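Researcher: Last one for today. Full complex below.
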Amino acid sequence: MAVSPISRGAPRTGPARRALRKKRRFRCVIGVVSAGLLFELGLRPFVTDAYHPRPFPVRTVRNYYEGLAVAHFEPDGLGQLGDRLTGNQALRGAPEGLIVGDSHVVAYSVRDQDTMGAVVERLSRASGQPLNIRQYGWPGANAGTFLAAADALLQARKPAWVAVVLNSYNIGVNALTSHDWRMEVASDYSIRLIHGKYLRQTAFRDRLVQWTGRSALALALWRRVGVIWSRRTLESGSAATILEQHDSRLAEEAARVPRATVLALKKSYGVRLVIIYAPPVGVDVEPVEAELRSLCAEEGVAFLSVQEALARDRNEHSRLSRGFHNTAPGVGHFNAIGHQIIGEEIWRYLRGRSLTSMPR
Amino acid sequence: MTFVSISFVTFFIVVVLGLRLAPTRHLRQCLLLLASLGFYASWKPVYLLVLATPVLIDYLCAIRIERSADAVVRKRWLKTCVTSNLLLLAYFKYTNFFLANIDMLSGAAPKHLDIVLPLGISFFTFKSLSYTIDVYRSELPACRSLWRYALFVCYFPDLIAGPIVRASVFFPQMDRSLRPSWRRTIVGCHMILLGVTKKLLIADQMAIFVDPVFAAPISYSPLTVWSAVIAYSLQIYCDFSGYSDMAIGVSKIIGIDLPENFNMPYLAVSTVDFWRRWHISLSNWLRDYLYFSLPGTRGKAWHRYRNAGITFLLSGLWHGASWTFVCWGGLHGLALATSHWWSARRARTGREPSKSIGVRFGCWLATYVFVCITWVLFRAQGFPAALSMLRKMFGLAPDGIAWLYSPLLMVLPIVIVAHVIGIVAARHALPTGSGQKVHSPAWVASFYANAHASFVVKSSRLSGVYVFTRPRFLGAFLIASWVLAVLLFGATGANPFVYFQF
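Model: Here's the assembly. Have a good evening.
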């Protein structure tokens, strides 16, 4: 039988044993702290604090949930994080176009030069009709957010055109129930925008968020807790319960959201508005897309759907426009291929309608 | 309430505290029974009646069998018990399957009864059956205490998905103190951590890729489909063995040692070898209570091969009420029979099995590829989906989306290295020349203990498991890193355990 190193030698006395135990505990603590440090250093290239402005001209967001990408933003007070940079130099005197949307426009998961705005800029410049593109997004946003931001965007940027990227999520029941900007739609399709804070701000919470922002490990763990908590909430069926309680009222009101959105967007952005529909899957035309198309035609609003282009690319080139190397295929945000296709479609649409030379 | 949920952690802490505080063993046993019933009721309280049925029937039948000296009467009671257990299983698990087949043959409109499959029914009926058969074979005395027997059947760590523990293993352990000790808790926590790692870090991550590819194989390229099948082989292994590790760990803390269920199955060099390493408790159950009970098993070779085929066909049906499962079992039965025939033929000619590395590698590769191909039948929703997968795998439909799933590329080397460390560690952990067989809990525990001899201060042997009792710097560092890795990179979605459906 093997003899353990501990049992060798003379028995230890009380104080010596206590000292040994203390030493062991100290080594244990050092081991745990070292592991934390290793992860802190290892995560630094992949995790950064996105939501707390630092005194830098460019805000950097790193992402490792969907692919591995670094996104840069110019914090100009618009959008959630500011202008999503395209990686191209702005051209003096070129007309400016805005792309507004949810997390697909924020596009944490693709590089600056792969965003749809970057594609439009490159194509416009290559064809001799140069454009500067600014991209403003809000993760998890819905139509209410795009309406609430309209005045500020138009005043600050004075764009030649504004492309609002929509999908079924933005103009569905979420537009009525979201925790951030949400809307109430009356029977005459008039809208009342309501702003609700996602989480209650407290001094403790602020301090906690500030503190976690300083450590990549704490930030990563904090985000994990957030993801787990939100999934838990979804799985516990609390969202379903809310819907069930207000089912009939919400269903009626939700049916009015697409028309109310088109009317309100038209009123807010005027003739500069182009509604872009980017469907979640892109294989078949969704009912909401057909509805949006006919509403836009009725109201004289420029409308473009990228569904056909996404489906064509999938069939012809066997490529998926969504998903990343570390996620489920075809699920999640648009990848570089998806942004490329949407960018090309936007440019094709703009060029055909001479929207690139609209007076500022 | 699964093992990987906050509600279970809360429940288990309360149980452990209760066991720790209860003054007598009798009270601790009562507490365990109540906890087990509560655990099962948390899913669907009314199905406690389903759980109670085999408990009562087998308890009474076993006593009747033991009391009677007449072989005919004994057999009659055994038949009553087996039939009632199998009827219960058949009603809940196979009614819709039989109806669908009858409708298909008669050309009638398909009927579907709204029957909810009780959780773990396949496991607790087998556990209960094994007890009665053991009593009938006079290998075990009948249990005279109903609540003791109820605790054996309802014992919550292995109630839902095994390992299928035998009464001969369980009852003697009930007489232990059942008071959680610090040492057992440490070992149990290590096993639970290992199980959680397998489940969250590997199985659930692989599921993210496997599910969409198996849902629409026709859209993907052959290479992608192959990688999805390999990912599924890892998913099902890590999911089920992860559950088993957690069950063993939870039970270890309570004070009862559950049997091992896996022993590095993907290192198998034949299908016979594979079934000695995969779901060991079920394989042993089928061998002892089904295969040996079939006529002719100890007779002609042909009868043995036939019986192996029948056993695996039924094993397939046990896994799920679908023809794809039957086909999966049939293929394994065929491979097993072929393997036995080949061994017998070699023995007749007096040839020794080759020890060349090349031959062994070839055998391993053939076995792994065969197992992977049969997993397609196991996982696919039906024959059309399985055929689509197989067409892609064999290059009959070469086009499709190519998708490289990076977590698979990261997990594969980890799994390979873990196996190598496991083999080395298991050899290192065993006393020289003991000739003792290496069991999986030994190697998994020694994975982070005895494998790193340089920082092991003291390894203590506890029920066949070597544990790292006093971590110093490196031990604490490794365990902290391990926990952080699971917290940061484990899947967050609630994926049910694959074997819960059986």
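The interface with chain B takes residues 1-2, 4-6, 24, 27-32, 34-36, 38-39, 43, 217, 220-221, 224, 227-228, 231, 235, 314, 318-320, 323, 325-331 of chain A (CB under 8 Å). DSSP finds 13 helices and ten strands in chain A.
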